[in-house]
Specification:
CATH topology of the largest domain: OB fold (Dihydrolipoamide Acetyltransferase, E2P)
Helix content: 40-55%
Strand content: 25-35%
Order of helices and strands: EEHEEHHEEE
Number of helices: 3
Number of strands: 7
Structural class: alpha+beta
CATH architecture of the largest domain: Beta Barrel
Strand order of the largest sheet: 3-2-1-4-7
CATH class of the largest domain: Mainly Beta
Mean pLDDT: 81
Distance between the termini: 18 Å
Shape: elongated
Number of domains: 2
Amino acid sequence: MIEEYAIVTARAGTQATLEIERRTACSLCGQKRGCGNATWGKLLGHSHHAFTAENPVNAHVGDSVVVGIDEHAVLSSAFYLYVVPLIGLLVGTVLANYFFSNQFYVILGAALGLVLGFLWVKGHLIGRNQSGIAYSKKYQAVILRRAED
């Protein structure tokens, strides 16, 4: 299980909206020397991204919690997001090259294979529930415990 600290910003039923707490490994982020993470953060802007997670510990707004996601889910989704579209691109290229002698159609075949690969991944990773479309439970984060525990 991959774990990270987060703060609950909203609650709705069994779901909670969270923001990851920024923690640094050393004290050099405020200085000009260091690993460069602070420089990239200043350049690109440290934006906060909110996400929803299951809330089995009944955490309230403002609570600091430990949120986790299964590492096998992360690895399999990385495989799907990188390998499947690449295979689609290669298959589209080979098929277009086999049927057409024009390089423009080969490029279009490659682009079509890439897009179809991404669409297949999207359809595979998204499941349906009673409220509409949501990501499969396998790929959702879960609040494991309060950070004070």
